[in-house]
Structures are given as C-alpha cells and as structure tokens.
Design goal:
five-stranded mixed sheet, 33% helix, single chain, Heat Shock Protein 90
Length: 147
C-alpha cells in the first residue's frame, strides 16, 4: 500500500454500511461534492480557500473514485466532510482487494499505462484507512490537508 504514510487496514464495519446511499457515482460528481464542502467551510469560517490544497483534494477524489470504478466494481458509497484543517473523502466499492502500487513495467519489461492513482493518493493524503465492509467490499478514507 503506501509505504511512507500511515495507512491502516480496519476490520470493523465502516460507520454504517450505507450501501443503499445514493451518492455520486461518477468522479466529476464526487469532485463537485468535495469542492462544495470545502467552499462552504471557507465561507462559514470566513477564511480564504487554498487553491492548491483544494486541487490536491480534488485529485485524491478523482483517483479514489476512478479506482473504485475501474478496479473495485463501482462506487457503492461516497462521503465528504471537512474536519478541522483537513477534508475527509471516503469512497466505498464492491471489491475486498486492498490497493497496491503496480510496478511501472510488466513481466516482459514493457512500460505500463496508468498505475499512478494509488501513489498519488498516498503522496497527497496524510492518513489513509482501508475498512472492510460487513456485507463485502471496502471503504477507503483519505484525509487531505487544506492548508
């Protein structure tokens, strides 16, 4: 997973296994939800939103949701909230597989296309948790600093 970051695999149920929750099912919808949450927090606290930090949060959101679609059988739940100086993004999918960093080349020595999403998440988020869901699948929660 992320070697240089605190990453935790949790075997307890995610807050409430909200598989029936109708949330964003496309990366663009999830990005809009994150942008809305961060912007609302900045307005409420009358602070300036750091554009670079927001970009980082949007990139993490894109990577997590795209990975859920491509490798996890689709997004089953999505949640975003601003917690102190961080934005917390949670994306659940149908797969029990823990994300891994793919080698940059295949067995024949050919360069792989893609495979950069999980390393990007690991670089931009300071706390990542992978939680097994009781009814199968997982939820990945990433904390991204907003300053």
């Amino acid at each position: 997973m992320c070697d240089q970051h605190r990453t935790e695999i949790v075997l307890e149920p995610f807050a409430a296994d909200r598989r029936g929750h109708a949330g964003p099912c496309k990366p663009a919808e999830a990005r809009r939800a994150v942008e809305r949450a961060v912007t609302e927090r900045c307005r409420a606290t009358r602070t300036r939103c750091d554009a670079d930090a927001l970009s980082d949060a949007l990139l993490v959101t894109s990577e997590l949701t795209t990975n859920a679609i491509l490798h996890g059988g689709g997004i089953t739940d999505f949640h975003v909230d601003v917690v102190g100086p961080d934005v917390r993004v949670s994306v659940c999918d149908r797969s029990d597989d823990v994300p891994v960093v793919a080698p940059p080349v295949d067995r024949r020595g050919r360069r792989r296309i893609g495979g950069h999403g999980w390393p990007i998440v690991c670089r931009l988020a300071h706390d990542i948790r992978v939680t097994d869901l009781p009814s199968g699948g997982k939820c990945i929660t990433a904390m991204v600093p907003l300053s």
